[in-house]
Write a structure and sequence with these properties.
This protein has 23 helices and 8 strands. With 550 residues, it is mainly α.
Amino acid sequence: MSSKIDGVLETVGALGKYQWIQTSFAGYAYFAGALQFLAIVFHGITPNHRCSLPDWPEDTYQVINERHNESIHQWIPMKNGELDTCHIYTSNHTNQTRECTQYVFDSMEYWGTSLNMQFGMLCSTAYIGTTVKVIFTVGQIAGAVVVGVISDRFGRKTALVGSVMVGSVVGIVTSFSVNIYMFAALRFIIAACYTGAVLAAHIITMEVVGPSHRTYAIAFRSLFWPGGTMFLSLFAYYLQDWNYLQLATSIPGLIGGIAMIFFVKETPHFLVTKGQHEEAERLFSSIAKMNGKTLPHDLIEQLKEDEESAATEKLSEIIHAPVLLKRFAVFLYLWFVAGLGFYGLGFNVTNLLGNVYINNLIAGSAELATVPMTLLSKKLGRKALVIGSLFIGGASLLASTFMGMHLDSNKYGSLMILVYMIGKAGIACVFLFDYFWSSEVFPTTLRSSLVGLCSLLARIGSILAPIIADLSNQVDTIFGSNLGVLIFGITMVIGGFLAFLLPETNNYRMPETIAEANVFRTGRDAYSSTDNKKIGEFSSEANLFASSQL
């Protein structure tokens, strides 16, 4: 079945008022998702600290007077020329030490109460903070699998609205967590919901906008995640108590979810592939009216063509489609690299020089590079820009690693952060392109499921991200604290070479079936994998459509 749905979308308005409304709500899911995903960066802040002095009931991190200073040095041992942050002498007349049972924190640096401070995730128990991050990313895996299936079976709107609403309500409850176990369990649910929300929002964007204008819609939507990242810095600076920040980052999603119930519509691709042609016709009529266009008179006949082949395909059938299977494997790796690098570099913000709030703001600004890159892909295509982002971003991270090893951070700190942010911008572009490039290669009948499985690999990468980011704390190498950045850079460069195996999709109609996807951009006809019956010539039609857009 050739992609007649995209053709109808072009007729009723590829990117009109209707599409802008739907894309705006899809983008809002990204905005709310960024608030939830990255809040842990600020929840887990650990300010400068040391053990509380036993002979100072109202001890503070800042030196009060000379006597206080003397008491600090009597009780707190020195480590590498600085006060030990985790140990205290058993008495002020011995050299035996023990781990702190109570701490004082630098209120000049951070005046709120972070998660680590409230639940004592410091020194020998600091690993619990990393574990909480890992649990969150495991939740992302659950969301990628479960919500992807829900989206393909029950609809994109159901998946989007349900995920945003449940995730936001759970986020509000999370702000009242009484222990770290409750917090971790609820964050798992938040991760699952918002991973599903982002996945569904992406599919909606791809399926309501005509192929000739899809790039512009993606560019517009890509403003929302960086916007959420930068807005989070503002929230986090003024709400430094972790529970108030968690509450504040959950309310916007709840408000948006309620609005989505009334304004978000099901996608025409889903309705047609499920055989709901009357609903699809009413939706197309509504789109045409809102966009000031005319609905084709023979719409129903167009949409019913090859209905059975589109509605009954199963995920296991891609085994008989070697070209699609190979491309799927490459996308699995690219998604893994994106999840590993994007979240790894995001979690690593607290380890950079300078102010964490400003660094997070800069990181969000760096991600805005996705907007011009998306628009540029309209002329240069997806493939060249993804390959360029992987190579340039990877090289920047490798350069950042060696700069950290050999340059004076006090003198070249700003340059080091700039090079690091180029790598961050590169991986942000790859993550964005992974979403809509893979969606343009995968067939409509299995698009959510295949993108969901790719997203699963990204979540596996995000599970490893905090572990690799903190790897230098466990493994002593010549790369020091830059070991994680080095690994992120190497994986990006490898991805750059593998991306050469993928087809260009710019200005081509998306395939609807496995057969069409298996011959997409190969110049071959599509044949049934079971009876060799010829079912269409998608490639020729796709090339005709592409040439008409040039």
